[in-house]
Amino acid sequence: MARPLEPNRRRSLSDPLAAALMPPPNESAADRERRLEAESEAKRVSDGIDEMLRAEKKEKKAKPEIKVLILGQSESGKSTTLKQFQLMHATAAFHADRIAWRAVIYLNLVRSVRRILDAVSFESDQPDEAEDQETASGCAISLARQSSAISVTRVPKYPQYRHALEPLRELEERLIRMLSSPNEDEPTHTAPSKPDWSTYANGNSNVQVTVGKNGRPAPFITIPPSWTSSPLSPSTSLPSPGGSSNSSSKSKNQEVSVHHTSNWKKAFSLGNRIKSPKSAHTNEIEGWWDDPSDPVHVLNSCAQPMLALWKDPSVKQRLREKRIRLEESSGFFLDEISRITALRYFPSDQDVLKARLKTTGVVEHSFSIAHSQRRFITWKIYDVGGARNQRHAWAPYFEDVNAIIFLAPISAFDQVLAEDPEVNRLEDSLLLWKSVVSNKLLAHVSIILFLNKVDLLQAKLKSGVRLSHHMPRYGDRPNDYENVSSYFYNKFGSIHQTFSSNKEREFKIHLTSVTDTRRTATIIQNVRDIIITVNLKNIHLM
Length: 542
Ligand SMILES: Nc1nc2c(ncn2[C@@H]2O[C@H](COP(=O)(O)OP(=O)(O)OP(=O)(O)O)[C@@H](O)[C@H]2O)c(=O)[nH]1
Ligand SMILES: [Mg+2]
Known about the structure:
Gprotein_alpha_su, GTP binding, three-stranded mixed beta sheet, alpha/beta, single chain, six-stranded mixed beta sheet, 20 helices, elongated
């Protein structure tokens, strides 16, 4: 018996796909029933999936997200840029965290002092024989030997300084241990309301802890290869302030970083303590300055010799001879010794921006930012570690990112990488830039380039350092800020022009000094507007 075609199938005979799906002409009634049941079940599943997709789309539309990745080599200013975003868009949280930075600032200061002691020690009084370049952290390394010895300035008071500042050695170790306390990533960990600073004492500063008590990975101190062990710089291996030049003196110049899983801020949050009255009668406030084991007491007692060391003309001269520019790294706290070592020192916004703590891994920060009068959008900003051994972690974030802020510190033309003293920092930035702009996964991503540290560039050029000595192609063009900065502007711009995987993308260059809050706020506003305009179009909000 001929079976009538179902009405909605008749029309489909000309459609090859529909024809292929037609039921067999000799289908029995039972088969037909089974088929219809199966079709109805398939439709139910398909409708469910459609519904889920609609809901996801609706949710995405209701809660759109913008993802921004901050890239660049180590010490380019990525975390500082992130701090500026926090200062603008999460002001209360930024202020709440300020006290936690106290330990980092202390450590920055103590390490700067030790670096000076190392540089002026009698043991390091070998004549300087080289044209020096600096590592990212402001230390000079020898690159080429000259036959004629140059006389060196001696620091007559070195033994006194060394003796008076001896307590800082133990303090440095203690601060490092506190920042990398192995318990800090435990989810159950709560900050002690009154941390016992003394429990961190008597430790070994160069411990690398990789497994916490619970068997999970714990925060650790990352120790990149030290420049002191470079075969290029045999004469610059610095003895310790105590005079010994052993293996510990090698690692002590390595930079401290705290892994992104670490909860170090919690351990240093003394917010509760400074508000609690010590005595209900007098309303006297209890603070860390009342705790004899707090690091501030060691610092406070060393303030005078630290000041004398930093102001000593023979020290300044010795640092000049060794081409050590501490102001390029966290050395700026040396100009603030009295303020920072005061018992009741509380970090300012500017101190937090300048505090240096190397990033490892990738750290996600969320902000809710208004894009119109009453509508907010979630921004996820990813701050990455920029050292070479950290860069493999960037790629997984490339897939769904909307914008990249790339930082290239253009003051670094006469410096080398801390992790590889054979590589000039600016050359490294240029190569990194090229690989980012030419990456096909990033073809549709807006890119904002910050040519950063222009304040240091200005100072460096003014002090007479010539770009052409380090980049011969610059030739005999004027060695002033206008010419040098526009040279870099064009150089980075033309790499984008030549190698970009998408020349039509939104692309902007800014000359920045991201420690300067006022100027950076304007730039961030501008960057924010561009990113929002481009991306809201894409997620259909405009
Ligand atoms: N003078 C000056 N210092 C800057 C500027 N930008 C950053 N710094 C300082 O340079 C140091 C390094 O900056 P960070 O933001 O920690 O560098 P980073 O790119 O996050 O480095 P990694 O975490 O190692 O990848 C910090 O002490 C900053 O305060 C700038 O424009 N001018
Ligand atoms: Mg960082």
